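Hi Y.,

Following your request, here is the sequence exactly as I used it, all 278 residues.
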Amino acid sequence: MFDLLIRNGKVVMPEAVLEADVAVQGERIAGLLKTAEPVQARQVIDARGLYVVPGGIDAHVHFDMEFLGQSKHTFESGTIAAAFGGTTTIIDFTLDLKTLGGPLLDAVEKRREKAEGKAVIDFAFHCVVNDGGDDTLRELEHVVAYGVPSFKMFTVYREVNLYVNDATVYNVMERLRDLGGIAAVHTENADIVDYCTARLLAAGQRTPVHYPQSRPTFTEVECIRRVLFLARSARAAVYVVHIAAGEAVAAVRQARAEGRPVYGETCPHYLVLTKAMY
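Below is the corresponding structure, written out as tokens. Let me know if you'd prefer a different format.
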């Protein structure tokens, strides 16, 4: 007997929409069954005329974040909103200037303390790394053992001590390869972004309409290609966050077509807040 049976729904799969029943045991999908198949369950939901989709995973959120200001969503309000939208797991970040540069595991535990008892859905974290020294490389093992295998690095933002150079990216990737972890990377060419930003500020061009000029599309594309090359050299898995440029998507697709453990994401505002709006 199953714990739950969702009958007669339109089950959305990656390759097709199926007329099927979904059996659930505990917190796992136990099987997709023919609609006429006689099975028993403690609870039965008739989903006739409705779509049935797995709970979504949002791998990039910022709740209860104190970073150059306070984020609007708390772990409570943000996860309630996620649940209403069908998202049942979120992944946040240990992005906090107060803990940056300190022990990685401490940063993870402090973020977990904020979420425990507040989040109404499942949650996890990406651990932010801003250096590739021996101490940090040793810490990675403890954080992975704790249950956090994803580590976020930034190739920009020197002014807030987030920037890491190529050597750090490579060193961390190598270590994560051995630990079975994954590197999540914010990809922009820091030198060109800093140069373009300084040029705009010197000219007094400080309004939102000038913002896209501070980080031209090619700064993302070049950096993504470089990070993917480093990942291939390190034989490591990489997750490229908030992709905005079409050419960057093409680079990720090419890497995946080669069978490499490369993943990418975007977020809604990167699709709609384009320079055409200004």
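The mean pLDDT is 94.

Thanks again,
Q.
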